[in-house]
């Protein structure tokens, strides 16, 4: 048991140390009431394709709100994008694939929240 706990701590430590200095781009979407499920699914799919189109993205994950407290203020989706550094985001923003993606979500978007930061250990 002690060996497995030490191994788990070592793996956690390695994961945390890899996070230092990476640049995070968090995007939350609140869609218009008129957005159809098919339109929302198209946004999910298109965002998920960006890592294969923009090589400065080093990690990507997303999820739909499962707020227990109901304090998500109508935001239903969170997308978490990681870059090696801030320059990666600066390449991502004007990239043609990102511009094409905007054409998909902007017509059905009610509100977006974007938060960028450099990861600290």
Total DSSP helices: 4
Overall form: globular
Gyration radius over CA? 17 Å
- Counting copies of identical and different chains, the oligomeric state is single chain
Supply the number of structural domains: 1
Describe this protein's structure.
- The protein is α+β, with helices and mostly antiparallel strands.
- It contains 4 helices and 4 strands; from the N terminus they run αβαββααβ.
- Helix 2 (37-53) packs antiparallel against helix 4 (96-105).
- It has a single domain, classed as 2-Layer Sandwich (Alpha-Beta Plaits).
- A 4-stranded antiparallel β-sheet has the order 2-3-1-4.
Descriptors:
Alpha-Beta Plaits, 121 residues, four-stranded antiparallel beta sheet
